[in-house]
Amino acid sequence: MPVETSSACASDPCAPGTKCQATESGGYTCGPVEPHGCASQPCRHGALCVPQGPGPSDFRCYCVPGFQGPHCELDIDECASRPCRHGATCRNLADRYECHCPLGYAGVTCEAEVDECASAPCLHGGSCLDGVGSYRCVCTPGYGGASCQLDLDECQSQPCAHGGVCHDLVNGFRCDCADTGYEGARCEQEVLECASAPCAHNASCLEGLGSFRCLCWPGACARTRSFSEHVS
């Protein structure tokens, strides 16, 4: 190990810019003087300091990506060019940026609109209309709800008249008019019991609700009692 002694290096035998170091054998060696510029570690953010001479300012900093300046002290603002689109928020990082996209957009710079219909959210054959950050379903008849998930109750409006019982169907309903005296799709028409001419012997038929009555000629009903009975 070289040892510096006053006797070996007293005459300053080394050339300018070099340093004298005495050896154990009594001689000396001349080596380069470590520049003072990099000794103070002037380069920041992990930059490489390269000596350029013996003076305290004789150095050069080689910056890592994302920094600049004589001492690599300046963080380059990657958001300065406004790379994020559609109102996204840009976050400056070391040698890169990060975009926080608003609802409905995606991608490195939020350049791509998200297709909310890609997941087929509309049920029961509904059509999907894509919007920005949303979608709208156009439902097939008989269904409703945001995703057409609801089977609409067509009986809710009470379409069956005169006490008819409503049975809900897909995109429709069925009225049960039994024992009401009415008929038709909505039990809206009174059943005409006399239409089948139930009274014999020229008796007159009188309509009733769910029944009829025969008015017989004198003596006719005596021959056939059923003509004067109420039929339900």
UniProtKB/TrEMBL annotation:
InterPro entries in alphabetical order: EGF, EGF-like_Ca-bd_dom, EGF-type_Asp/Asn_hydroxyl_site, EGF_Ca-bd_CS, NOTCH1_EGF-like
Pfam family, one: EGF_CA
Superkingdom per UniProt: Eukaryota
Keywords annotated in UniProt: Developmental protein, Disulfide bond, EGF-like domain, Glycoprotein, Repeat, Signal
Domain EGF-like span(s) in chain numbering: 34-73, 75-111, 113-149, 151-188
One Gene Ontology biological process: Notch signaling pathway
GO molecular function terms noted in the UniProt entry: calcium ion binding; Notch binding
SMART domains: EGF, EGF_CA
Disulfide-bonded cysteines: 63-72, 101-110, 139-148
PANTHER family in UniProt: CYTOCHROME C OXIDASE POLYPEPTIDE VIC-2, NEUROGENIC LOCUS NOTCH HOMOLOG PROTEIN 1-RELATED
Protein's recorded name: Crumbs cell polarity complex component 2
Organism of provenance: Rousettus aegyptiacus (Egyptian fruit bat)
